[in-house]
Amino acid sequence: MDNFNNFALRHIGLSKTDIDVLLNYLGYKDIEEFSQSVLPENIFLNNKLELEDAMSEEEALNKLKEISKKNTVFKSFIGQGYYGTYTPKVILRNVFENPGWYTSYTPYQPEISQGRLEALINFQTMVGDLTGFEIANASLLDEATAAAEAMTLAARVGKSKSIKFFVDQNCFPQTISVVTARAKPIGIEVTIGDPMLLSETDNETYFGALLQYPGNDGSIIDFSKQIENIHKQNGLVIMASDLLALTLLKSPGELGADIAIGSSQRFGVPLGFGGPHAAFMATREKYKRSLPGRLVGVSIDEHGRTAYRLALQTREQHIRREKATSNICTAQALLAIMAGFYAAYHGPEGLKNIAQSIHLKTIGLAHEINVLGYDLKSNYFFDTFTIRTDDQTEEIISAAQSQMMNLRMLDKNHIAISLDETVTDSDVANLLKLFTKIGNEEKVISRLEIPSSLNRSSKYLTHPVFHLYRTETEMLRYIRKLSDKDIALDRAMIPLGSCTMKLNSTSEMIPVGWDEFSNIHPFAPDDQTGGYKILIRDLEAQLSEITGYSGVSLQPNAGSQGEYAGLLAIDAFHRANGDDQRKICLIPESAHGTNPASAQMAGMEVVPISCDKKGNIDLEDLRNTAEKYTSELAAIMITYPSTHGVFETTVTDVCQIIHDHGGKVYIDGANFNAMVGLCKPGQFGGDVSHLNLHKTFCIPHGGGGPGVGPIGVVEDLLPHLPSNPLSYDPDSRNVGPVSSTNFGSASILPISWMYIQMMGASGLRKATQVAILSANYIAQKLSSHYKVLYTGKNNLIAHECILDIRPLKESCGLEVDDIAKRLIDYGFHAPTMSFPVAGTLMIEPTESESLFELDRFIEAMINIREEIAQVEKGMMLIEESPLRNAPHCAQEVTRDDWPYKYSRSLAAYPADMNGRNKYWPPIGRVDNVYGDRNLMCSCPSMSEFKDKS
Fold first, then answer.
1. How deeply is 46 buried, as exposed, middle or buried, from its count of CB atoms within 10 A (0-12, 13-18, 19+)?
2. How confident is the model at residue 328 (pLDDT cuts 50, 70, 90)?
3. Pairing of strands 584-588, 633-639
4. Is the pLDDT of residue 623 over 80?
5. Residue 531 domain flag
6. Is residue 73 part of a domain?
7. CA distance to 15, 23, 46, 212, 794, per residue, from 27 (Å)
8. Which of 532, 621, 627, 628 has a Cα at 20 to 30 A from 140?
9. Cα angle vertex 793, ends 788, 795, to 5°?
């Protein structure tokens, strides 16, 4: 009898009976025989993973609750880029806790993504308005990496020939660490100093400068003259800014800066021990094609209606590879959406009111402390001020902690205090009690305010979206209206190859909202974070066991950053051995675009390796190339199973060839959902791998982030894992940090901990087996209708299959897009298009889908093939078919003058759907060319906005 307290039965979509049906269809007697038929024998894992026994949902939640209680939630006045905030409950419940938002994918298919695209363009508009720039992206990973991205942007687009970059010594310490670490491998020389000493006659010429506004110590400085001086040297100026402060302060754009970066965390997103939070970047229109990250733009659909889409995708890593502007793929879409809703809910007046309240409390507290005889470091500040405490510093810090308050020790003589929207008058009074009169003469500053030259007079957030939803009722309906426009996992299967859109269970998500995890400052003292230490230690040990590696770093907050960190570890290993010349990175031609982009960021030279007709790495070409570069070879980057969806039987040979020539093997973990419990990359030749916890280990995709991309490494790479950003020495040979905080997006790690704890070793292995089984079932069912492009051992595939659509283009002019858009009429998100081969569809069902849903998808694909056959037979032209005119939105289906030769029912209810679970796309097919030719990346005009409503 099945134990329905067994979480694996809830997570895995196929019952035992269903599994037997699929095995019988494929010709196998049991799941073990099938698994051994798919994987190469020499890597197959016969032993069970050594993990704790599976727990029920309640048992796991109770255990994690006990762990969380070992965190102590203090009132933190630390600041340093992280601040207390209130998440409006209407946003908390209906966005943050809503699977309609958090289970959606990156909006590559705009027709079924209009809700989150609109929410993201609200974020872009908010950032652009507050920073004073024409264009902003749809989020980056965190403030420090955004600063590093801005540095490389300035190097690309600036006119200066210098390789030197200036960093304000008053930047946040974590930002300085990440920027200096990013600069090292690409040959940028960083100077850290006082920007007030920069002059137009300075002997040093910089291609760019990073200024903090307000500064790390809270001071507000008018940098207009310094910006002018940098410009006279043909340099560009980046300002790290605080969005809430910019409701009161003159914007970076108005001051003459070229780029603004920062974090939107304090717009309603909890501290979460460091993340995830949505960083931002805004710049001038002329730099739009070099802007890293996603960019949402306004276009039109085929009927002329306003539509949103991802714009200028040709600049991204999946297109430009090593020539890409960045390796960023996953960003922080869900958190950006929350920040955008926060701004819409409060509006410009509400945000300004919050900022003024914080500022007045800060001024009042600073004045009272100053009256007691403590010198203030600056007269001008927003929410943070620094006081000279000399030999009282540690005593005051300790006294604060005894009252469950955290202050920031700037150095042994200074304390910084940061206030935020959660600070009450009672909190201010408690802070004041920490300070007593000291003997020195009172030096009272008569005026504490923002300099008049920096008072903001320009308007911001003027678009109607920031004025219409001030009541909870209106905001609730707006959020619902947007989510209804999209397809997420709560509505249908999302069969995207290489994306692993599996169940994100409610039990896994619940702990993320617990105060003990969400309200911990990332720089809180160690004795307050005992629960996080246990959680992180557990997860590192679990992932080490699952991968076969000696150790794990959880710092990378995206797969792209995991790749980068892994390659930095390899580079550091070679340098430590005196092999500084090892800079060649071999990458198969089929690799995902992040691979070459990451190699370039790590200072390596990319050399491509050919693939044979079956998609496998060409061993002869690999041997010849490895021999050619034997003394320069740093690494190879391979994906396993391959991007072609098969377990290459020669993977151990590939690893051995590289090792024989002194190189290291990087195994991309994008497809690790096909390996868990069945093989271990650390045991069959891998030296380092990143994992996507937002794929394999159930962190939701959030419409394009958040993600976590930890790396596992073999023993000799352990000394070269990323450093803590607060203790990194840029003059050392250590690998620098790749994230603003030591544990990256720490607050979502409980999701993966819960998944592993509830599945146990047997459940994890079975999930992998079912994912592979379901993929083979789909491939076999569709093989008589479409060409399955690649197969591996025993004519089987791994966890995804690739359908070749190119013959259909030759036979009747069909495009991949036509199938993708027609699937929307059947209620499905399209598979991955044209990757890794142009003109193909890559399908990954995951283990979470039921047999009913698998069959529904198969039926839809077969019906679409029959529609294609009608075009092939000349029964209708492709231009007049439901394929080319898909998707069919309700406005078109109900129009009086139906213009098509096929019926309305065929358009809207194909395959006799009878309205079952009918999804209506809000728009028709989007005109991508129009969108890029007429680029607009902020909220459309009032008339267009009304049209979309």
1. exposed
2. confident
3. parallel
4. yes
5. no
6. no
7. 18, 6, 22, 64, 12
8. 532
9. 35
Identify whether residues 158 and 272 lie together within a single domain: yes
- H helix intervals, 839-895: 851-872, 882-885, 890-893
Residues 92-135 pLDDT 10s: 999 999 999 999 999 999 999 999 999 999 999 999 999 999 99
pLDDT number for residue 945:
45
Mean pLDDT of 395-401: 97
**Tell me, what's the pLDDT at 445?**
53
Partnered with residue 297 across adjacent β-strands are 309
> Any idea what DSSP says for residue 186?
G
Evaluate whether 767 touches 78 at the Cβ level (below 8 Å). Answer: no
User: Is 397 a member of any domain?
Assistant: yes
Question: How remote is the C-alpha of 46 from its chain's centroid?
Answer: 35
Per-residue pLDDT tens for 867-906? 999 999 999 999 999 999 999 999 999 999 999 999 999 9
Nearest to 933 by CA among 9, 13, 474, 312: 312
Token digits for 78? 């630390």
| Predicted pLDDT of residue 949 | 46
Backbone angles phi, psi at 243, to 5 degrees: -60, -40
Question: Is-contact 778 854, C-beta < 8 A?
Answer: yes
Dist CA 208 CA 237 (whole Å): 6
pLDDT at 438: 59
Take residue 351 and report the two structure tokens written for it.
């945000």
Q: For residue 530, which phi and psi values (nearest 5 degrees)?
A: -60, -35
d(CA 197, CA 170): 13
Give the tens place of pLDDT for each residue, 743-777. Answer: 999 999 999 999 999 999 999 999 999 999 999 99
List of residues 6+ apart from 296 with CB closer than 8 A? 107, 117, 120, 121, 124, 138, 308, 309, 310, 311, 937
Q: Hunting for tokens 């796991």 — which residue is that? A: 60
Contact 845, 492 (CB under 8 A): no
Q: What are 840-865's pLDDT values in tens digits? A: 999 999 999 999 999 999 999 999 99
Pairing of strands 75-76, 259-263: unpaired
pLDDT in tens, 532-576: 999 999 999 999 999 999 999 999 999 999 999 999 999 999 999
- What are residue 359's DSSP bridge partners? none
Q: Residue 314 pLDDT > 70, yes or no? A: no
Residue 301 φ then ψ, to 5°: -95, 180
CATH number at residue 401: 3.90.1150.10
Residues 6+ apart with CB under 8 A from 712: 543, 544, 547, 548, 549, 550, 551, 552, 681, 682, 688, 689, 690, 691
Average pLDDT over residues 933-945: 67
Q: Smallest Cα–Cα separation from 71: which of 434, 536, 397, 693?
A: 536
550: buried, middle or exposed (CB in 10 Å: 19+, 13-18, 0-12)?
middle
Instruction: Give SS3 for 464.
Output: helix
Q: How far apart are CA 799 and CA 281, in angstroms?
A: 36
Q: State yes or no: pLDDT of 938 exceeds 80.
A: no
End-to-end CA distance of the chain: 52
Q: How far, CA to CA in Å, does 151 sit from each of 189, 236, 290, 291, 489?
A: 11, 9, 12, 11, 37
- Does residue 324 have a pLDDT over 80? no
Residues 697 and 822 reside in one and the same domain: no
Do residues 742 and 767 share a domain?
no
State the residue for tokens 């976590």: 708
Say if 48 falls within a structural domain.
Answer: no
Q: Is the pLDDT of residue 268 over 90?
A: yes
How far is residue 99's CA from residue 105's CA, in Å, rounded to a whole number? 11
Number of domains observed in the structure of the chain: 4
User: Distance (Å, rounded) from C-alpha 68 to C-alpha 605?
Assistant: 45
Within 438-591, residue ranges assigned H as helices are: 472-483, 506-509, 515-518, 530-547, 559-576
For the domain that residue 341 is a member of, what is the CATH number?
3.40.640.10
Q: What's at 848, amino acid-wise?
A: S
Helix (H, G, I), strand (E, B) or coil at 714: coil
Shared domain for 326 and 400, answered yes or no, is no
Q: Which domain holds residue 846?
A: 763-933
